[in-house]
């Protein structure tokens, strides 16, 4: 569903991502892990067509994001870390806008169901600038789910959410994966990956340091009394690199 | 003022100065800075040269005439501004930012100290504005120093006077006196409308004659007394005279500041809520919204958005933006446009006069695009959304332009109609031609505006009063846009002229050829805009 081959991205001489290759199949949830500036957000933003790749191929449901952007984007749902909504539109109007943009014919029923599942029904006619950050995040996720995308990209999906909201979003992500969507989550919350992800990729300084199934990572790094296996893997990989550089 | 507040003020001024210096360290910042001051210098040099070209007696005569005009009309303009402040009565009198409220409201400071701190910050900003005005106005006032002091005292007066009026209105809110506010405003506007109609119907009396008569009547003098002081300050010809009027102006400003400190105790709660409201509004202005946007939390949702091949949702979003963000602005501009015809007729200047044409072009090419924003320029922070949509770039661009162009056209049409109705010797066919050409010209203005914005993204509001990079950039953009519009108009006119000389018996064919040429040029600029949108990459172009 998502196939990335030799993807690199450079900004005016600075390499944000270097020669990245991986794939995510339907039903899989890939966790992108790495310190700040590792290239996680750049990878997600390139995958959904916000920024062009410098080199490499990025296929979404068989469509190259650089060569056939419209067909590729039709299959993507993207939730940025800081959802910027249209402040003069209500929650419902955001769903109506998304339905028209993605050509979803009879969206009302799905929209109602999404509002209900994210506990936004009573906020239907609220102008979004009056919503809390967590609520805005929920609106962005509802919009991203409306056209039933085959690929869903989350950048820090749990920021600003209350415990109830976190549980709801985790459940929604699981359900989407079970329904056959390929999902990538970028986050700093290791517990989120342990709860949800089937695969893990650790990025550092734009390069892939580790890519594998959650099971293989857990078995490779084991678990001690102080920290989880994923935490162990993360610090081992990122600190080794820093020590090498030093 | 409290020592800590004084220190804060100094540090903030130093920070502002450092920021300007940092702007100069980049090539772009330096170029826009030079462009801004280059244009100012050009304006000063041109006005100096034009006054040198005439005979000395002519220059003296011009200055005398100008002084008479300032003396007559400046007090009236200042009164009108004050009345407008009463009509709007919105926003805090002294705006404290959220950071200032968090740090200073909770600090060990008296309210009086906070007011004086804010007033001092305002005076510092006004000093800079006055220095700029002084450079431009020194020819009229005699010396740069006198122009500077006159401007400074007047700008401070305008701020203090507005603050006192607003605070007095807030203090009186809920009382019987507050109820007469709107009837008084209606009465004033009725009187203004009656004066315009009278000036229009009586051939030998223009609107300016009526205003002049009012200013020099005994009742006009009594009403305008505080404002006359500042007009006299501008037109004083000798130093003693200037010192005399400056002292009176200083006394008026001190009295107003004292009144503000007294009134502030009665309006503290209101000031806090108004500050929060103003901060929210400025945040929205920075995002491309309007200062007058709806304050409501909930509205009735529109159930569906049109598709129109991908163009619909974008246009729909912008239509909602105008309806909820800028409707009041549109209504005001339609009102101004409708009044333009009678006003021009009352003043007695024909439409073909270059001054009228310049004002109209400046309005549509500079003021309106900066005041009414419902296209890419207001969506800089939301470009990610557009980039992820499965819609072709040209459709997104067209969708962004539709509402902006239509709203501007809705403002242009009453202007055309009012001018044609009130202009002597005009014909309906002329109005139709103007209406036909207005549409592609408006598309051209906004396509160029958006293309420049997409290629060189910028913030919508300046960073403080002395953001010379912002000012320079605005002027350079306006000049670039004017060059494109003039080139398109010239090409269109040339094709029309060629058609007339080659085939012409009637004007219909040349006009049509001219219009088609202009439309084709506009389509080319839309292609350019599409290129700019495709090229736009958030992470690479936004700091």
TrEMBL record, chain A:
Keywords: ATP-binding, Nucleotide-binding, Transport
UniProt GO MF annotations: ATP binding; ATP hydrolysis activity
Sequence intervals crossing the membrane: none
Entry keyword Oxidoreductase: no
Cited Gene3D superfamilies: P-loop containing nucleotide triphosphate hydrolases
Tagged with keyword Nucleotide-binding: yes
Domain ABC transporter: 2-230
Superkingdom, natural source: Bacteria
InterPro entries per record: AAA+_ATPase, ABC_transporter-like_ATP-bd, ABC_Transporter_VariousFunc, P-loop_NTPase
Coiled coil: none
Full protein name: ABC transporter ATP-binding protein
Organism: Aliiroseovarius halocynthiae
Lineage, top ranks: Bacteria, Pseudomonadati, Pseudomonadota, Alphaproteobacteria, Rhodobacterales
From TrEMBL, chain B:
Residue ranges crossing the lipid bilayer per the database entry: 73-94, 115-137, 143-168, 180-201, 243-263, 327-349, 355-373, 394-422, 434-457, 478-500, 512-533
InterPro entries linked: Put_ABC_export (IPR031584)
Record keywords: Membrane, Transmembrane, Transmembrane helix
Source species, domain of life: Bacteria
Stated name of the protein: Uncharacterized protein
Species in which this protein is naturally found: Aliiroseovarius halocynthiae
């Amino acid at each position: 569903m998502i196939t990335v081959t030799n993807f690199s991205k450079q900004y005016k001489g600075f390499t944000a991502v270097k020669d990245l290759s991986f794939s995510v199949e339907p039903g899989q949830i890939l966790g992108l892990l790495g310190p700040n500036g590792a290239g996680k957000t750049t990878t997600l933003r390139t995958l959904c067509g916000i920024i062009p790749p410098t080199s490499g191929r990025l296929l979404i449901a068989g469509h190259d994001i650089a060569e056939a952007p419209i067909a590729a984007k039709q299959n993507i749902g993207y939730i940025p870390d800081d959802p910027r909504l249209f402040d003069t539109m209500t929650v419902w109007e955001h769903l109506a806008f998304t339905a028209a943009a993605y050509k979803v014919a009879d969206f009302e029923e799905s929209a109602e169901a999404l509002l209900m599942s994210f506990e936004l029904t009573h906020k239907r006619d609220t102008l979004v600038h009056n919503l809390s950050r967590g609520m805005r995040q929920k609106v962005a996720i509802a919009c991203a789910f409306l056209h039933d995308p085959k690929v869903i990209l989350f950048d820090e999906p749990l920021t600003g959410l209350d415990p109830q909201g976190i549980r709801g979003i985790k459940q929604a992500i699981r359900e989407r994966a079970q329904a056959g969507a390929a999902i990538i989550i970028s986050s700093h919350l290791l517990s989120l990956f342990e709860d949800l992800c089937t695969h893990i990729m650790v990025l550092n300084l734009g390069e892939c340091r580790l890519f594998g199934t959650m099971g293989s990572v857990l078995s490779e790094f084991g678990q001690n009394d102080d920290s989880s296996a994923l935490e162990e893997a993360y610090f081992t990989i990122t600190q080794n690199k820093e020590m090498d550089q030093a | 003022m409290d020592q800590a507040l004084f220190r804060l003020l100094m540090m903030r001024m130093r920070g502002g100065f450092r920021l300007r210096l940092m702007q100069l360290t980049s090539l772009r910042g330096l170029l826009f800075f030079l462009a801004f001051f280059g244009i100012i210098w050009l304006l000063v040099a041109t006005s100096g040269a034009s006054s040198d070209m005439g005979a000395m007696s002519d220059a003296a005569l011009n200055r005398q005439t100008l002084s008479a005009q300032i003396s007559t009309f400046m007090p009236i303009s200042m009164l009108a501004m004050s009345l407008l402040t009463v009509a709007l009565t919105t926003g805090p009198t002294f705006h404290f930012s959220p950071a200032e409220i968090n740090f200073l409201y909770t600090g060990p400071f008296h309210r009086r100290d906070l007011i004086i701190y804010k007033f001092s910050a305002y005076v510092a900003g006004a000093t800079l504005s006055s220095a700029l005005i002084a450079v431009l106005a020194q020819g009229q006032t005699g010396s740069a120093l006198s122009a500077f002091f006159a401007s400074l005292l007047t700008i401070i007066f305008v701020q203090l006077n507005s603050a006192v009026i607003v605070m007095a209105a807030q203090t009186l809110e809920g009382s019987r006196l507050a109820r007469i506010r709107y009837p008084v405003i209606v009465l004033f506007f009725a009187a203004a409308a009656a004066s315009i109609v009278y000036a229009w119907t009586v051939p030998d009396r223009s609107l300016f004659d009526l205003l002049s008569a009012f200013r020099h009547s005994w009742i006009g003098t009594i009403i305008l007394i505080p404002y006359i002081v500042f007009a006299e300050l501008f037109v004083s010809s000798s130093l003693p005279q200037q010192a005399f009027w400056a002292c009176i102006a200083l006394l008026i400003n001190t009295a107003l500041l004292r009144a503000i400190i007294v009134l502030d105790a009665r309006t503290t709660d209101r000031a806090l809520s108004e500050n929060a409201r103003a901060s929210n509004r400025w945040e929205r202005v920075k995002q491309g919204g309007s200062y007058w946007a709806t304050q409501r939390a909930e509205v009735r949702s529109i159930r569906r958005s049109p598709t129109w091949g991908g163009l619909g949702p974008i246009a729909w979003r912008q239509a909602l933006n105008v309806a909820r963000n800028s409707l009041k602005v549109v209504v005001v501009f339609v009102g101004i446009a409708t009044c333009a015809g009678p006003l021009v007729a009352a003043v007695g200047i024909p439409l073909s006069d270059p001054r009228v044409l310049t004002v109209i072009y400046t309005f549509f090419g500079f003021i309106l695009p900066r005041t009414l924003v419902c296209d890419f320029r207001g969506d800089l922070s939301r470009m990610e959304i557009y980039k992820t949509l499965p819609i072709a770039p040209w459709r997104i661009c067209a969708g962004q332009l539709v509402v902006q162009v239509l709203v501007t056209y809705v403002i242009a049409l009453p202007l055309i109609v009012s001018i044609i109705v009130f202009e002597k010797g005009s014909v309906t066919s002329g109005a139709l031609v103007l209406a036909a050409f207005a549409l592609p010209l408006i598309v051209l203005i906004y396509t160029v505006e958006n293309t420049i914005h997409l290629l060189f993204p910028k913030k919508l509001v300046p960073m403080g009063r002395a953001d010379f990079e912002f000012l320079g950039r605005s002027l350079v953009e306006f000049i670039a846009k004017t060059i494109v519009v003039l080139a398109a108009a010239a090409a269109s006119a040339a094709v029309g002229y060629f058609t007339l000389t080659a085939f012409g018996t009637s004007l219909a064919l040349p006009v049509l050829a001219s219009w088609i040429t202009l439309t084709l040029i506009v389509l080319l600029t839309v292609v350019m805009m599409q290129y700019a949108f495709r090229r736009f990459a958030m992470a690479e172009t936004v700091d």
